[in-house]
Amino acid sequence: MATDRTHRPATSTRSRGIPEATVARLPVYLRALTALSERSVPTVSSEELASAAGVNSAKLRKDFSYLGSYGTRGVGYDVEYLVYQISRELGLTQDWPVVIVGIGNLGAALANYGGFASRGFRVAALIDADPAMAGRPVAGIPVQHTDALEKIISDNGVSIGVIATPAGSAQQVCDRLVQAGVTSILNFAPTVLSVPEGVDVRKVDLSIELQILAFHEQRKAGEDILPEGVIPDDETEPPVAPPADTVTKRPDPGSDGDRPAVMPA
Amino acid sequence: MATDRTHRPATSTRSRGIPEATVARLPVYLRALTALSERSVPTVSSEELASAAGVNSAKLRKDFSYLGSYGTRGVGYDVEYLVYQISRELGLTQDWPVVIVGIGNLGAALANYGGFASRGFRVAALIDADPAMAGRPVAGIPVQHTDALEKIISDNGVSIGVIATPAGSAQQVCDRLVQAGVTSILNFAPTVLSVPEGVDVRKVDLSIELQILAFHEQRKAGEDILPEGVIPDDETEPPVAPPADTVTKRPDPGSDGDRPAVMPA
DNA sequence: ATGCCTTTGTGAACGCGTGCACAAAGATGA
DNA sequence: TCATCTTTGTGCACGCGTTCACAAAGGCAT
Ligand SMILES: NC(=O)c1ccc[n+]([C@@H]2O[C@H](COP(=O)([O-])OP(=O)(O)OC[C@H]3O[C@@H](n4cnc5c(N)ncnc54)[C@H](O)[C@@H]3O)[C@@H](O)[C@H]2O)c1
Ligand SMILES: NC(=O)c1ccc[n+]([C@@H]2O[C@H](COP(=O)([O-])OP(=O)(O)OC[C@H]3O[C@@H](n4cnc5c(N)ncnc54)[C@H](O)[C@@H]3O)[C@@H](O)[C@H]2O)c1
After folding, report:
1. pLDDT tens sequence across B55-103
2. Which of A168, B38, B54, B197 has its CA 20 to 30 A from that of B45?
3. A77 and A135 co-located in one domain
4. CB-ligand 2 contact for B187 (6 Å cutoff)
5. Which chain A residue is nearest to residue B30, measuring alpha carbons?
6. Which residue CA neighbors atom 32 of ligand 2 most closely?
7. Where along this sequence does the record place binding of NAD(+) (chains A, B) (predicted)?
8. Residue A13 is assigned to a structural domain of this protein
9. B72, β-bridge pairs
10. Which of A89, A109, A142 is the last residue of a domain?
11. Cα A114 to middle of ligand 2, angstroms
């Protein structure tokens, strides 16, 4: 998963009784169900659907139980009916205008993404700070300048924004989006966005995903070489030099009023 | 979070003692630490770093405790040293050749992504099935035809592959990658990939992210209308038409194998 | 009707992840 | 050397999420 709910530990967790983990799986079920629907399959068992969605059947049944009892024992679930129920639960029965800010390589790719409009999401506008891009159509939609951001959000009643600007501009763009009324943000920039309570932020970070894969990859390689648990589990320091001379202990306990240590927020 | 570890419940979970949740946060810490390092900040307290990374300080300290005791009580953590330790733990001290398959809108954007090479990841090759793209340089790297996939993987010792092909081709491409020796896959196609044990798959799914945001967005809207907690916490059916007339309870307990209810998307 | 067979819905147990709160460690200054 | 102050490292408790296992429900055939 490239995303990761930013904050709201207790709040969103109990979102109306449906566990967050379940909410995250509903789209997956929906996709599988839609495929079945297109093949005119009338019903599916939890086992079959779970297999298609790549999850445990008990988990799937429990997930559905949060929505209500929509299955028929001995038979399974009605595909069409379930598609509707999940769509409704996810809020997909209504139209969600979305704005994409930062129409560079990624932003343009997102704008061209077909799966975007396929489920109730509509690209209401493409916004970029580069004056040279203003008016230029991308994916059939003319790019508008950042100056119009607030008006666009307001006029279209946009509540979901996608940030695809460089990291340095992300927080600033985020602030403007939130100020203008956006309450859900999908962030592709490699930055931790800080938003006021009530605003949801999900992030997609390619770099993080690769690093997580690298971690496991390294483990696999390590295990191949060291099938035995040679040194128990403590190769922590041996490899490199622990804090000693490098930069760590700068010899000067005195005043040093210049470099104000860290002092972040 | 747009990604989501596909399977391996017990296996990867206890990866060498470091919890999966911690592994997923290490890249975030690393990014914050790198920024501090560039500003020549020598040390940080867990509180400051946690704030920059957007997490709880206790969580951060516990995360670091899995790597060893690298902090100094009363002072904090040595930035440079921690950058090194985390990099090593994530396997970033080595070079990871990566191949991107499917050089369309998204694949091209990924190829152009600078943050790619910044941390030990190197785009070893760009692969596409379209003969017309063969040889065409994208981000300075010539696109190669799918026919050469196996040889490319093998020659470069690639163990990480990125799939950016249409959903329909994803599983097939995945199979070839795995067959050729890739053991970690980052999948951007909206499909559930099935892979043999030992292969890691992480997925990035824009559509799912938006749907999750829509769910919460819908809740927010609903709460605005119903400020009071009228019915305690069980508005499961009241809000919307429960199985009754709409399409819900198709009035006919008998057969009726035809057109079920609504079917939105 | 009745019994069999399939599949749901969920109680209960378990494990992971989170966050509090604090003892211990170590730096700093007298 | 000793007291004080800061910040780490972690024991502990709690809640969410996962999975097992099974009773109950319902379809279907006889
Ligand atoms: N390209 C990828 O595959 C990829 C992958 C992961 C993450 N990202 C991240 O996504 C973001 C965009 O990547 P990219 O490759 O498209 O970069 P890019 O440089 O091609 O595009 C960035 C665009 O944002 C615009 N922009 C800059 N500041 C702005 C502002 N304040 N308001 C509005 N628009 C502004 C620029 O004019 C430009 O068009 C970056 O943060 C990058 O790290 C990209
Ligand atoms: N564009 C986005 O923003 C975006 C967002 C989320 C998900 N996705 C997904 O990413 C994938 C790619 O999206 P896109 O917009 O770049 O599509 P695209 O059609 O622009 O590009 C797909 C590319 O894959 C190549 N391809 C097809 N079959 C192949 C095969 N068997 N082997 C190698 N290459 C093959 C095609 O030649 C084409 O160049 C799709 O699955 C899409 O659903 C895209």
Report:
1. 999 999 999 999 998 999 999 999 999 999 999 999 999 999 999 999 9
2. A168
3. no
4. no
5. A208
6. B129
7. 102-107
8. no
9. B76
10. A89
11. 10
